[in-house]
Write a structure and sequence with these properties.
The complex is a heterodimer of chains A (242) and B (529).
Chain A: H1 19-41, H2 46-49, H3 54-57, H4 60-72, H5 82-87, E1 107-108, E2 111-119, E3 127-134, H6 137-146, E4 153-156, E5 173-176, H7 184-192, E6 196-202, E7 210-213, H8 224-227, E8 233-238
Chain B: H1 5-28, H2 39-64, H3 67-76, H4 83-103, H5 113-130, H6 151-160, E1 162-163, H7 169-188, E2 196-205, E3 208-215, E4 238-245, E5 248-252, E6 258-261, E7 269-272, E8 275-276, E9 285-286, H8 292-318, H9 322-334, H10 338-344, H11 349-352, E10 355-356, H12 357-360, H13 368-381, E11 428-429, E12 439-441, E13 444-446, H14 448-456, H15 472-478, H16 482-492, H17 515-521
Helix pairs in contact in B: 1-4, 1-5, 2-4, 2-5, 2-9, 2-13, 3-5, 4-5, 7-8
The chains are: A alpha/beta (242), B alpha+beta (529).
Chain lengths: 242, 529
């Protein structure tokens, strides 16, 4: 049986839904099919090609060409880790200032609601403190060197547990702009007993704003994320002079 | 290999269970993300690395120590070949790598059939043996529960754990140490959760449940980035059994995560202990368990060490390049079975801590967005064209005509144009610095050859000869015999309260159940009963 004899497209198949996997995977499939046909024309059976001549089916130069093709077309990738953006800035979109995801809430008693989130641990009283916006390795390094002012509430746009690993215990509270109470940061907040709201939607907060976290709210139920029943803990900013 | 129809039927059945369970885990657990580590790119790389290397490595291990014997070992103590690493991760990561290559047209469903059958056969034998005491294949099959420990071990825990109340020194020390261990384990494992493990729950009576919490690879050992880190910590692994009151752990899943009702609350902790175990320990070894004060002091000391280690390691990792972060994370994932080699005494650093050259070629594809969306497409949306099944199909959890993992076509029994194995040529490389440190073990800090030689010649006494087959069904009928007493006394060695007590005890007979004995042993009121 020759190398390319199997149908390339599976019955019942569709295409990937997300743009970059659709683009990349189709490109790899196309190359692999062409190479398999070429080897078949040379009389190489698939069983001898698949591992015995695998670099002839796809090699690192092919991978680089697929990436180059995307970049040349103007495509720029979303980044997730700051190291990606810093080491290959030409490949990634610059981070845009987050759009407001929470419209202004009620103002009363000198405080204005600026957001909601999911409470990790139910406490007996709210937590109040100045915010520090933490999103880079350099900031964490500075805090490690200089210490964190007492009472600081960290606004963290990463639900992972490692970026803020060395400083999380020193925070009086956390506003996490992603994840869920099951995220690694949520797990660590629970273990450290740090008052924390996950999955927060907030209006703009500035460094040093005094915020209040409603960590007296009930944590989400087991099925909350399945049914969308989230965002019950409120976040207020205290108006200056109040 | 004798590739038969029954064998393929078994393989495809197990593969489909893994497929369903993994889909359920992926859609019900949290999205994994990190600003520090490019997690999704390294996960994709790890799956490819597993595909190319795992079959060869498992065959060597299986020949030295069969998978079912490794399951026996894992059933007796806490080892890193556990629920999340070995029982679920090892076969799942391998099969997900297969899906990636199949989707790219670089592999057909019949290719590597001998590898798939061997990996899943190894995995199945390990899991059946590991779960021998609860009689299930996976936590999912058991209803999100994991009860692999025997009565004789649980009786030692119940008798020796120290009672605590919120605010006392040991309660505070233990909750702070668990927090520190969790954080450090996430960091040492490049943000993934596989350094942490939870098993149970076990019924401790009077509305109490035991959750066994484990933390692995804490000191110098396999990961080169831990060279010189936490060198003051004398143990590579720590186990902290915790007894809770008024808390029902209704879920302990195949990622070794738990959920409780009401939620996990340290205020409900009523007893704790600390142990270590590894490939060289004959059962759990108590750590600081002499009395509550000593345990608190030990926990406080370890917390200090790990707090410094977290800071030291974080600074080291923060200086890494993107490729180093990706290599490290990929190696953490693709080496989830490495402790099988430690148990068999066949561990080689280059077997487990290199990225295979055949996987390296895909690195230019693995930007952050492709990593994120490619993973979502593969394990969440199940959007790869070949993941679709016929239009009448309704999958177990989604009800849709799609499956995460692809079965082996039975046509391999009749056709010939497939490659049965990806081969045993293992070449690889890494961007990370070479390992130069020692291996932290219960026998001290060892050179690798010494560690392997000791492991290869070691069998725990409870698994020697006939003991291996003396299970709980046998105990049920033979508890009054000298053989049963001898078996229980092996596990009771080193126990503060149960040394030499034998097989006849029930909960009411345990020293900690009787106030006078509890007072003598120093167990505070409110301790385990």
């Amino acid at each position: 049986m020759a190398t390319g004899s199997q149908h390339a497209s599976p019955k019942w198949g569709s295409t990937e839904m997300l743009p970059l996997p659709a683009r990349y995977n189709a490109a790899v499939r196309r190359l692999a099919a062409e190479r398999a046909e070429r080897l078949a024309a040379e009389g190489v059976a698939w069983k001898d090609a698949v591992f015995g001549r695998e670099l002839e089916l796809f090699d690192v130069a092919d991978a680089r060409a697929i990436e180059r093709d995307a970049l040349d077309s103007g495509y720029r990738f979303d980044f997730s880790a700051t190291v990606s953006l810093e080491s290959e800035p030409d490949k990634y979109k610059r981070p845009e200032k987050a759009a407001h995801t929470f419209t202004d809430g009620d103002t009363s008693n000198g405080r204005r609601q600026v957001g909601v989130g999911d409470n990790v641990i139910r406490k007996s009283a709210t937590v109040i403190g100045p915010v520090a916006l933490i999103s880079t390795v350099d900031q964490v390094m500075d805090y490690l060197t200089d210490g964190i002012p007492e009472g600081t509430i960290g606004v963290i746009d990463d639900s992972g547990g490692t970026l803020t690993a060395p400083i999380i215990e020193e925070l009086a509270g956390v506003i996490c702009l992603g994840g869920s109470v099951r995220s690694h940061l949520g797990i660590l907040a629970r273990e450290y007993d740090v008052p924390t709201l996950m999955n927060c939607r907030i209006d703009t907060l500035n460094e040093g704003d005094i915020v209040e976290l409603e960590v007296t709210a009930a944590p989400p139920s087991a099925e909350a994320y399945d049914i969308g029943d989230t965002g019950h803990a409120r976040i207020w900013v205290h108006e200056k002079g109040a | 290999m004798d590739l038969t129809y029954p064998r393929l039927l078994d393989t495809n059945n197990y593969l489909r269970q893994l497929s369903d369970t993994t889909y359920w885990l992926c859609i019900t657990r949290t999205v994994q993300e990190s600003k520090l580590f490019p997690m999704n790119p390294y996960m994709l790389l790890s799956y490819l690395n597993s595909f190319y290397r795992l079959p060869t490595l498992l065959r060597e291990i299986d020949a030295a120590t069969p998978a079912e014997e490794l399951g026996d070992r894992a059933r007796e103590v806490s080892l890193k070949v556990d629920t999340v690493n070995a029982a679920w991760g090892m076969p799942a990561f391998y099969l997900i790598g297969r899906e990636m290559l199949m989707n790219w047209g670089l592999l057909r469903a019949g290719d590597a059939v001998e590898d798939v059958v061997d990996v899943l056969d190894f995995s199945r034998r390990f899991n059946l043996s590991y779960h021998r005491n609860d009689g299930h294949l996976t936590n999912k099959e058991f209803g999100e529960r994991s009860q692999f420990l025997p009565e004789r071990t649980l009786q030692v825990f119940e008798s020796d754990l120290h009672g605590v109340v919120p605010g006392d020194r040991l309660h505070t020390a233990s909750t702070k140490l668990v927090a520190q261990l969790s954080q450090y384990a996430f960091l040492a494992h490049c943000e993934c959760r596989i350094g942490l493990h939870n098993s149970g729950p076990y019924n401790f009576g009077n509305g109490r449940q035991l959750l066994v919490r484990d933390f692995f690879d804490l000191a110098e050992g396999d990961y080169p980035w831990l060279d010189g880190i936490a060198t003051a910590l004398p143990h590579n692994n720590l186990t902290i059994p915790i007894v809770f009151k008024d808390t029902n752990f209704h879920l302990v899943d195949d990622w070794a995560s738990f959920e409780a009702e009401p939620g996990y609350d340290a205020a409900n902790i009523v007893a704790v202990g600390m142990y270590t175990s590894d490939a060289l320990t004959d059962g759990y070894v108590p750590v600081g368990m002499d009395n509550a004060e000593k345990l608190a002091e030990t926990m406080e000391q370890y917390r200090e060490i790990l707090n410094q280690a977290t800071s030291d390691l974080w600074k080291r990792i923060a200086s890494w390049s993107r490729e180093q972060m990706i290599d490290a994370g990929a190696l953490v994932y693709s080496s989830v079975a490495k402790d099988f080699a430690h148990l068999a005494g066949t561990y080689r650093q280059d077997d487990w801590l290199l990225i295979d050259e055949r996987a390296q070629r895909f690195k230019p594809l693995l930007n952050d967005e492709y990593g994120r969306d490619g993973l979502a497409e593969m394990v969440g949306l199940l959007g790869f064209p070949h993941q679709k099944a016929n239009e009448y199909t309704m999958a177990r959890y989604s009800g849709l005509n799609q499956n995460m993992l692809t079965g082996i076509p039975y046509s391999v029994l009749a056709d010939t144009d497939f490659a049965p194995t990806c081969g045993d040529r293992l070449t690889g490389s890494t961007s990370l610095p070479a390992k130069n440190g020692l291996w932290t073990t219960s026998a001290g800090r060892l050179e690798l050859d010494d560690y392997n030689a000791r492991a290869a010649g070691f069998t725990p006494a409870v698994l020697e000869g006939r003991n291996r087959y003396l299970d709980e069904e046998w105990v049920k009928w033979n508890h009054a015999t000298p053989d049963a007493d001898a078996l229980y006394r092996l596990t009771q060695r080193g126990s503060r309260n149960l040394e030499g007590r034998g097989a006849g005890l029930l909960r009411a007979d345990l020293p900690s159940s009787r106030p006078s004995d509890a007072a003598e042993s120093g167990a505070p009121a409110g301790g385990p009963g």
